Q: What sequence folds into this?
């Protein structure tokens, strides 16, 4: 047993009653955990008159983190009730016998996991940031920005839009930006060598409003290159990314600025709504809520998408912008990389939607094989790029989530006849290449084989793919 305490008469009596068996010594803080791991029971016994609200929680968490059952006095904060409710040890009333036994491996692991879930910095970080964001969300007079427009109090927001053959949608997108309630924005339109007359239309908008700038490329370079070019050309202190066929709510810039200015945040994330023809006709929302956003990105349970954050431009420049090697999952890669920056400051806001993502027939790709190939390549690249980081967290299996999700899309297209058997095998060779799958445990490899067999059946049972996802990644997917 380890009894963390100052000098106390009870310790003196223990030393007298058990000569040579009770050691009293000072343990430096950095040695406490190793001492705890060598013990079997943790004692947290206090007289009723003692109301220390710091030491008791600390000791309780330290005991659990070492996998120890806790013998605790009644009414020690909320922890006595927790010990009883969760069977974490014994609430010892004066006169009772000590009935706690040495924990086995399963009991120790259970206590350690509970400590990780409830008492670590990571467990409270989201709630802390949510509270901080609420406190910082009131508008305030900002510190003058080196990027801000002269003569204004609000810093400038740069809205960066890559565009390729989106002539039919551009007008509505630009109108949604012009309609902003806060006018301190610039719109940077980067046309990626469109062939549908988009450049002429975009040039017309740029000629109508000095806040709109057109960058016209002669060669198609991809959306990542366009966004990075927009970041470099931006004059704003903050950056929002928008696609050419999506929309902003009128209050978007105003409310995002209210959170960012003076907060010290690197990024803040808002709620997005999906629509078909006009906002409100679909109903699905992406609410950026996650207790473990990095783990959720790793497992491809995406907490947010491209246009939901507002970024501090300096932070984006530090990141180096988007990775142009990724033709798909580029926003997932960027957001994951941002969350891996030590000390990154971010905030997730449960708000009414301030941006709208379009799903329309015009967005569907004619060649599904080519699309699925690019998704497969990017999924494998994502896993490889972040494998070491996931291993440091002890959760490399999370990265199988993006592989599983991509495989399901391939199999869905194969079952519907949109790709043939030859294309299916070709895509499997890319996504499930032996170079990396051969290192997986046999059971994980079997799960991918089962996924193929099951999803090509004529009839499927709801919930099976979710179960396979959980077995592959070590956790059930979140609902949205």
A:
């Amino acid at each position: 047993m380890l009894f963390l305490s100052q000098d106390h008469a009870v310790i003196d009596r223990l030393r007298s009653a058990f000569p040579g068996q009770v050691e009293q010594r000072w343990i430096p803080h950095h040695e406490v955990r190793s001492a705890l791991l060598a013990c079997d029971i943790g004692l947290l016994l206090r007289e009723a008159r003692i109301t220390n609200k710091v030491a008791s929680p600390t000791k309780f968490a330290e005991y659990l983190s070492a996998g120890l059952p806790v013998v605790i006095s009644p009414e020690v904060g909320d922890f006595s009730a927790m010990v009883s409710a969760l069977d974490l040890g014994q609430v010892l009333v004066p006169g009772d016998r000590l009935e706690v036994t040495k924990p086995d491996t399963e009991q120790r692991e259970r206590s350690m996991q509970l400590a990780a879930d409830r008492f670590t910095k990571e467990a409270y970080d989201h709630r802390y940031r949510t509270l901080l964001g609420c406190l910082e969300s009131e508008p305030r007079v900002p510190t003058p920005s080196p990027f801000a427009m002269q003569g204004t109090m609000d810093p400038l927001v740069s809205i960066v839009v890559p565009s390729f053959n989106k002539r039919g949608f551009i007008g509505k997108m630009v109108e949604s930006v012009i309609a902003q309630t806060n006018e301190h924005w610039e719109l940077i339109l980067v046309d990626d060598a469109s062939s549908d007359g988009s450049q002429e239309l975009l040039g017309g908008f740029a000629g109508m409003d000095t806040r709109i700038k057109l960058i016209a490329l002669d060669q198609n370079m991809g959306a990542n290159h366009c966004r990075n070019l927009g970041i470099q050309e931006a004059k704003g202190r903050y950056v929002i990314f928008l696609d050419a066929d999506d929309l902003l709510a009128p209050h978007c810039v105003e409310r995002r600025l209210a959170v960012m200015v003076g907060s010290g945040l690197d990024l803040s994330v808002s709620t997005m709504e999906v629509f078909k023809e006009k906002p409100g006709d679909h109903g699905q929302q992406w609410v950026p809520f996650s207790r473990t956003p990095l783990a959720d990105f790793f497992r491809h349970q995406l907490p947010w998408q491209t246009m939901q954050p507002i970024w501090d431009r300096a932070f984006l420049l530090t990141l180096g912008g988007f990775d142009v090697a990724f033709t798909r999952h580029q926003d997932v890669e960027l957001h994951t990389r941002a969350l891996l920056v030590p000390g990154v400051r971010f905030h997730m806001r449960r708000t009414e939607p301030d941006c709208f993502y379009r799903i329309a027939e015009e967005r569907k790709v004619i060649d599904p094989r080519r699309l699925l190939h690019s998704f497969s390549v990017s999924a494998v690249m994502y896993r490889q790029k972040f494998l070491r980081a996931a291993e440091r967290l002890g959760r490399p299996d999370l990265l199988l989530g993006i592989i599983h999700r991509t495989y399901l899309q391939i199999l869905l297209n194969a079952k519907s006849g949109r790709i043939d058997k030859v294309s299916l095998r070709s895509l499997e060779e890319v996504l499930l290449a032996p170079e990396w799958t051969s290192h997986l445990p046999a059971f994980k490899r079997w799960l991918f084989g089962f996924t193929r067999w099951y999803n090509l059946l004529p009839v499927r049972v709801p919930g099976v793919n979710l179960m396979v996802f959980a077995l592959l990644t070590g956790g059930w997917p979140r609902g949205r």
Remarks:
- The first strand starts at residue 2 and ends at 3.
- The chain has three domains: 2-119, 157-363, 368-473.
- The radius of gyration is 28 Å.
- The first helix runs from residue 9 to 17.
